[in-house]
């Protein structure tokens, strides 16, 4: 069992690309079957990225926010789930986005993750839709939230 210690940091895409790509490859492409062509888009270079690492420096989770304010690519490797890594990543992303003036924030949540985002101050908008064969729901940050 790995220890429960983990660290969250905001990282530069070019510098941390191998770690971030490995996490997303494992979670989205291998585990969830998302096509590679959908996973790798043109948003990463301009997005803000966060990375979670374990005490040995291994990448265990990531997420990003695009210049348009879209939170996405939230991924925690399976063996680290339900230990607060995803919440810590999202909190750091919200802080970084606000500090950078990226708002209002929105995201397309996988249906199974809606409750997770509700707890972080997002609400559902519109109808459920399919993307990469997975049911999604658009969610937007509550306007009264001016800070993360
Ligand atoms: C979504 C995700 C990043 C959350 O990371 P995490 O480290 O497990 O998050 P936390 O430990 O902070 O919070 C866990 C909570 O989120 C819920 N949750 C979030 N997404 C979930 C999902 N896809 N399936 C099941 N439960 C999910 C858990 O049930 C748990 O709720 P609880 O506290 O009421 O039991 C992680 O589950 C993951 O990588 N999932 C696969 C990829 C994915 O679905 N990404 C989201 C795209 S919108």
Q: Tell me the major beta sheet.
A: 8 strands, mixed
**Rg of Cα set:** 14 Å
Strand content: 25-35%
Query: What hetero molecules are bound to the protein chains?
Result: coenzyme A
Question: What's the total count of β strands?
Answer: 8
What is the C-level CATH assignment?
Answer: Alpha Beta
Structural class: alpha+beta
- Please give the share of residues in helix: 25-40%
Average pLDDT rating:
93
Low-confidence stretches: none
CATH-defined architecture: 3-Layer(aba) Sandwich
Q: Any idea what the shape is?
A: globular
CATH homologous superfamily?
A: Gcn5-related N-acetyltransferase (GNAT)
Instruction: State the order of secondary-structure elements, H for helix, E for strand.
Output: EHHEEEHEHEEE
CATH fold call: Aminopeptidase
Span of the ends, CA to CA: 32 Å
The count of helical stretches stands at 4
Total count of domains? 1
Secondary-structure map with pairings?
Elements: E1 6-11, H1 13-31, H2 36-39, E2 48-54, E3 59-65, E4 70-76, H3 85-99, E5 106-110, H4 114-118, E6 122-124, E7 129-131, E8 134-141
Parallel strand pairs: 4-5
Antiparallel strand pairs: 1-2, 2-3, 3-4, 5-8, 6-8, 7-8
Residues 27, 74-76, 81-87, 109-110, 112-113, 116 line the site of coenzyme A.
TL;DR?
The protein is of the alpha+beta class.
Characterization of this structure:
This protein has one domain: Gcn5-related N-acetyltransferase (GNAT) (Aminopeptidase), CATH 3.40.630. It has four helices and eight strands, in the order βααβββαβαβββ. The protein has helices spanning 13-31, 36-39, 85-99, 114-118, and strands at residues 6-11, 48-54, 59-65, 70-76, 106-110, 122-124, 129-131, 134-141. A hairpin with a 4-residue loop joins strand 3 and strand 4 (70-76). The longest helix is centred in the first third of the chain and has 19 residues, at 13-31. The chain starts with 5 loop residues before the first strand and ends in a 7-residue tail after the last strand. The relative contact order is 0.16. The structure holds coenzyme A. Coenzyme A binds at residues 27, 74-76, 81-87, 109-110, 112-113, 116.
């Amino acid at each position: 069992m790995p220890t429960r210690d983990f660290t969250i940091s905001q990282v530069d895409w070019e510098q941390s690309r191998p770690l971030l790509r490995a996490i997303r490859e494992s979670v989205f492409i291998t585990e969830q079957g998302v096509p590679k062509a959908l996973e790798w888009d043109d948003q990463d270079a301009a997005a803000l990225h966060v990375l979670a690492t374990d005490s040995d420096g291994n990448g265990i989770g990531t997420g990003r926010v695009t210049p348009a304010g879209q939170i996405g690519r939230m991924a925690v490797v399976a063996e680290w789930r339900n230990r607060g890594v995803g919440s810590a990543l999202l909190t750091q992303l919200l802080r970084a986005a606000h500090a950078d003036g990226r708002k209002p924030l929105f995201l397309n949540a996988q249906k199974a993750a809606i409750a997770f985002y509700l707890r972080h101050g997002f609400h559902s908008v519109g109808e459920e839709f399919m993307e990469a064969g997975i049911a999604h729901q658009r969610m937007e940050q509550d306007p009264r939230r001016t800070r993360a």
